[in-house]
Design a protein that fits this description.
There is one protein chain. With about 575 residues, the protein is an alpha+beta fold. Helix content is about 35%, strand content about 15%. The protein contains 18 helices and 21 strands. A 7-stranded antiparallel β-sheet has the order 1-20-19-15-14-9-8. Strands 7-4-3-11-10-2-21 form a 7-stranded antiparallel β-sheet. α11 crosses α16. The longest helix has 23 residues. The protein starts with a helix and ends with a strand. It binds glycine. The site of glycine has 9 residues, from loops. The site of glycine (GLY) has 9 residues, from loops.
């Protein structure tokens, strides 16, 4: 009998060991010798990589990928929205492009308030009043002017061909279209392409969009900001009660900016500067973590979650108070991201008990963005890297569809704080620095990021996810650097998020054990897991020690890493 029991335990141990060994088997993403594109759709990643194979550089591939996403991923890919791009060339030069939307000239601080100064529900999110002046096309021409090596016509042509040929509907896309169809019907006066009950594997052809892209191919930026496309856009907006004019479109300009650059141990992190909060917040969080030996705490352990949460709480409190469009508000960036300032902010951190957000100064809370954005990363065969995040803001933006032009318009105006100091329609609050003014850019959380290790290119990454973008990107970097996960594992790992207010840690529904949740609650943390959704959708590339590239394409979407 004794022998039988012993055999049973040995058997059990063997099974456990096999399981543990299986778990430890690294999950590696697509690996490529020369170059890689990771984006939300394989069609766009393929088009980007084809440009690189033709001899184009990362900037050429960016233009082709971004335009292909406008066709293949209308949920967030766009020509009617905006975004940010951070780059690092093969000689170490870094920079950033801001092609964020702007408030129209006729915008005003209280445009979303009624006579009693109450926020009018839905006005900043749904329909024509929610639209900011789009920046994507001007941004792509700025990139081409500075870094393009192939003619723009060659870079846009694959997107035009894709629009004519059509794109297969994925299951996730079918679900999204079903979910949002009633908004399309509510907002648009005439039927639009997305009203139809599309099913998985149906092919949607985007013929009107193909014509718009041809006008851009043939007329440059004026193919969007002037002439037929501009007329179609302004007419649609006017019919639906919006305020964007031809002057708004003509005046739009993307801006080259200096990215936020900071060190974390032997990493240099290059991230987006305001009007995105991504770089400043990331710098504050990493600086708060730097004195600790995070690796020794364990991946997603109680202590790691506590520490990261407390760093996030303090950074997001500052975000809400200080950050906005740098062309309109003065931001003390150097102080905010300095080690001295951040360590003072962390001085009251305790392992014993959660800090209460009520006790964290800087008071007037945060602007909140919804989570329907898209990110792509590219490293080319010459060693240039770009990291770009682009958005319509909400799912399919304002739901306003320019039928003749075949494209959706953003609802980025909701990223402003409609009424400083009061909850917006997501139940969160913004501050004066992010109040609405004509031609001002709304605060963003988009965090396209490039990481150097020992002065060499190490990673290009970013994510959608509104305010969770910053924490998703930060955790992915930590997963690789501190916890030694492969790029794909780092992307796959379960994520959590805290943003000061509401004072709650959101955990992804899967991947956090019950007893860990209990331990966090014992320390005084409020947890949201049951009602939570996925957090972020990271697309990333890591340069391996042997010089090859490993992609991390997020399984949470239809994302794809393609390399050669
Ligand atoms: N609209 C999402 C963001 O800019 O953060």
């Amino acid at each position: 009998m004794k022998q039988l029991v012993l055999l049973f335990f040995i058997g059990l141990l063997a099974i456990q060991c096999t399981k543990t060994n299986q778990k430890k088997e690294p999950v590696t993403g697509t690996v490529a010798e020369n170059a890689m594109v990771v984006s939300a759709r394989k069609e766009a990643s393929n088009i980007g990589i084809e440009i690189l194979k033709k001899g184009g550089n990362a900037f050429d591939a960016m233009i082709a990928t971004e335009l292909s996403l406008a066709v293949a991923y209308p949920f967030a890919g766009n020509i009617g929205g905006g975004g940010f791009m951070v780059f690092r060339t093969n000689n170490g030069e870094t920079g950033a492009l801001d092609y964020r939307e702007k408030a129209p000239l006729a915008a005003s601080k209280n445009m979303y308030l009624d006579e009693q100064d109450n926020i009018i529900p839905g006005k900043s999110t749904l329909g024509a009043m929610a639209i900011g002046v789009p920046g994507t096309i001007d941004g792509l021409f700025k990139v081409h002017e500075k870094f393009g090596s192939l003619p723009f016509s060659e870079l846009i042509q694959p997107a035009i061909d894709l629009a004519y040929k059509g794109v297969a509907v994925t299951k996730k896309q079918e679900n999204r279209l079903n979910k949002y169809r009633h908004y399309f019907l509510e907002v648009n006066k005439s039927p639009i392409i997305f009203d139809k009950h599309w099913k998985e594997n149906d092919t949607i052809k985007y013929l009107a969009l193909a014509k718009t892209l041809e006008r851009i191919r043939d007329n440059g930026r004026d193919g969007f900001y002037k002439g037929e496309t501009a007329e179609q856009l302004v007419k649609t907006v006017k019919i639906l009660g919006g305020i964007i004019t031809k002057e708004d479109l003509e005046k739009y300009k993307a801006i080259w900016r200096k990215p936020i650059e900071f060190t974390y141990k032997n990493l240099k992190i290059i991230a987006m500067s305001p009007p995105s909060s991504g770089g400043v917040c990331s710098a504050q969080i990493f600086k708060a973590l730097e004195p600790f030996n995070i690796a020794s705490l364990g991946h997603n352990s109680l202590k790691a979650i506590q520490l990261i949460t407390e760093a996030e709480r303090r950074a997001y409190a500052d975000r809400s108070f200080y950050l906005g469009d740098p062309d309109f508000v003065k931001i003390p960036i150097d102080t905010l991201i300095s080690t001295t300032y951040v360590s003072k902010r962390m001085a009251n951190f305790s392992w014993e008990k959660a800090t209460s957000s009520k006790d964290i100064n800087h008071g007037n809370i945060i602007g909140y963005e919804s989570d329907e954005t898209t990110h792509y990363s590219i490293i080319d065969q010459f060693g240039n890297a770009i990291s770009a995040t682009t958005t319509l803001n909400g799912a399919y933006g304002s739901k306003v569809f320019v039928t003749e032009g075949g494209f959706l318009l953003n609802n980025e105006m909701d990223d402003f704080s409609s009424k400083p100091g009061e909850p917006n329609m997501f139940g969160l609050i913004g501050a004066e620095a992010n109040s609405i003014k004509p031609e001002k850019r709304m605060l963003s959380s988009m965090t396209p990021t490039i990481v150097e290790k020992d002065n060499k290119l190490f990673m290009s990454l970013g994510s959608p996810g509104g305010s969770t973008i910053i924490t998703s990107v930060m955790q992915t970097i930590l997963n690789v650097y501190e916890f030694n996960l492969s790029m794909q594992e780092a992307v796959n790992a379960p994520r959590f998020h805290h943003q000061w207010l509401p004072d709650v840690i959101t955990l992804e529904p899967k991947g956090f054990a019950k007893d860990l949740v209990l331990q966090l609650q014992e320390k005084g943390y409020q947890i949201n897991q049951e009602n939570s959704r996925i957090i972020g959708k990271v697309d990333a590339i890591k340069v391996l020690e042997n010089g090859k590239l490993e992609g991390g394409a997020d399984y949470r979407g239809d994302d794809a890493a393609v390399g050669y």
